[in-house]
Amino acid sequence: LTLRCAANLTMTRFPCREGRSVDDGVPPAYETGSMTSLRRNAINPDDECQLPDTKRHKKTSVAGRLYEASELSETALSHRVQRTVQPSKCSHCDTLSILYTVQCTDCGAQWHKTCFPKTTQTCGQPARPSDRRMSIFGVSLQGHLEMQQRNVPLIIESTIHELQKRGMRVKGIYRTCGVKSKIEEICEAFERCSGDQSVDLEHVHPMNLASVVKLYLRKLPEPLMTYELYNEWIRFGVKCCDEPDEALLDELKRLTRRLPICNYETLKHLMLHLNRVTWFHESNLMGPSNLSTVVTPSLVWQPSTSADHTAAIIDAQHANRTLQCLITNAFTIFGVDRTKDWDEFFSKYALEEPPKVRFCS
After folding, report:
1. What are the residue ranges of helices labelled H in 280-308?
2. CA-closest candidate to residue 262, choices 138, 150, 148
3. In terms of Cα–Cα distance, which of 159, 276, 261, 266 is closest to 208?
4. What is the pTM of this model?
5. pLDDT digits (tens, 9 = 90+) for 292-334
6. Among the four 165, 230, 299, 335, which has the fewest Cβ within 10 Å?
7. Residue 218 in contact with residue 298, Cβ under 8 Å?
8. How confident is the model over 31-81, as pLDDT tens digits?
């Protein structure tokens, strides 16, 4: 569906304290689609935004709800555009476009939403020479790790390390939205760095770091927990309970070991980190249930060929239970000594120890 066909649709904007969020648009509380609300970040109660009393304006049919006709250059008017979720290099500014990208359905050129009105590229005209290959976002996990010669993506390791340094007590971490422009800057920095070259994250807000983690995982061509095992994760969620017995945990352990090695190592790194986040749940309000709700859509999803939306909603609930079990029992599932990890964590990071958490193992 091109944006031309969506001419009568409008979007309500919500001005928030920190600027625009990762998922610019309607907060989950106002959404009508259950699957949509699951895939979006929730907004913390302290950051709720009121619906503004604004008059709706009819949009031009050239670019649907995205632009007014007066905003577009003559060359922009030659294109028929639609939104795309595929990470790409902007044809205008040649930087990463990952959160709000439009693509011409005729010539295939892609732009940031804000760059498109200024484009000087006529439809059908070749883009200016550039290395348009992506090195991180939208690239298969295995291919990316083979290129970097790593077991876990650098972007995941770096952001998690910085979060563990100074983001573990932030209220609503992983749940509250980051700022879209800042997140895209971080992603662009990682896209441009080579090998083990570090990206300075020292002054990045923890909410933005957590959003980068989820965004990277959500932009993988295949979910981290793979299409192949999708039905297995759902079946496990059906029979999973709040306190699974040893047999169920052994089954989950066997399931995780069926993942490709790069997926397994990345999932292990992430689940151990999320378990540590729950150590501070009295401060950050993020226990295993809350965390699984916001990270599941970035880790498990159906192939796009599926059209049964009702089944997808039910599956999402079961997948959420599976992730909750993985987070709660991460040290058991991945064979890591929790006591040793606790001691090493607080030796490495200058944080005050919270009371040891009962529900995490």
Report:
1. 281-284, 288-299
2. 150
3. 159
4. 0.70
5. 999 999 999 988 766 677 888 899 999 999 999 999 999 999 9
6. 335
7. yes
8. 444 444 444 444 444 443 443 444 444 443 344 456 666 677 777 777 777
Which residue's structure tokens are 């290129």? 147
- AA letter at 36: T
**Nearest of 76, 74, 80 to residue 7 by alpha carbon:** 80
Contacts for 260 with CB less than 8 Å, ≥ 6 apart: 141, 142, 226
Residue 247: enclosing H or E segment and its boundaries? Answer: helix 246-256
Counting Cα atoms < 13 Å in the Cβ hemisphere of 195 gives 2
Alpha-carbon distances, residue 298 vs 66, 112, 219, 324 (angstroms): 26, 23, 8, 14
With 0-12 / 13-18 / 19 or more C-beta atoms within 10 angstroms meaning exposed / middle / buried, residue 358 is: exposed
Instruction: Give the whole-angstrom CA distance, residue 54 versus residue 50.
Output: 12
Q: Any idea where the domains of the chain sit in the sequence?
A: 3-118, 141-348
The amino acid at residue 125 is Q
Burial degree of 38 (CB within 10 A; 0-12, 13-18, 19+): buried
Q: Return the CATH class of domain 141-348.
A: mainly alpha
Checking DSSP bridges between strand 88-89 and strand 110-112, what pairing results, if any? unpaired
Burial of 176 (0-12, 13-18, 19+ CB in 10 A): buried
